[in-house]
Design a protein that fits this description.
Radius of gyration: 20 Å
Largest sheet: 4 strands, antiparallel
Order of helices and strands: HEEEEEE
Strand order of the largest sheet: 2-1-4-3
Structural class: alpha+beta
């Protein structure tokens, strides 16, 4: 390879990394602004353990989602109810009927029909 070609490849790679860095910084600063303003950035989303089917609101888990729409999103976490490592599902909704929710402070079940919207 010629020296000029190598220089062009390196300059292109550095430029691409700089653009990606700026884009990621803008997105994360927007998330910080929403969070600092007290905005509920994951309103209506839940995180559900795929092993024991317990769930909790995504905001309690510290999840930030804005402008989000997905189907089948999973994240690796340790369930607060059963204590197992799992790929927890992040889903839209107040909590599926028939699923149990564990209050981590009292370690008691909360039933979906008793929750206020």
């Amino acid at each position: 390879m010629e020296t000029g070609t190598v220089v062009l490849i390196v300059v292109g790679a550095v430029t691409l990394l700089a653009v990606l860095f700026v884009a990621i910084e803008k997105i994360s600063s927007r998330a910080r602004e929403i969070s600092a303003a007290g905005g509920d950035t994951a309103r209506g989303w839940i995180i559900r353990c795929t092993k024991c089917d317990s769930w909790r609101p995504a905001t309690e888990a510290g999840i930030i989602r804005f402008g989000a729409a997905s189907k089948g999103k999973r994240t690796a976490t340790r369930c607060g109810a059963c204590g197992q490592l799992c790929l927890a599902a992040i889903e839209k909704g107040p909590g599926p009927e028939g699923m149990r929710r564990i209050d981590e402070r009292t370690n008691r079940e909360i039933y979906p029909e008793t929750l206020t919207a």
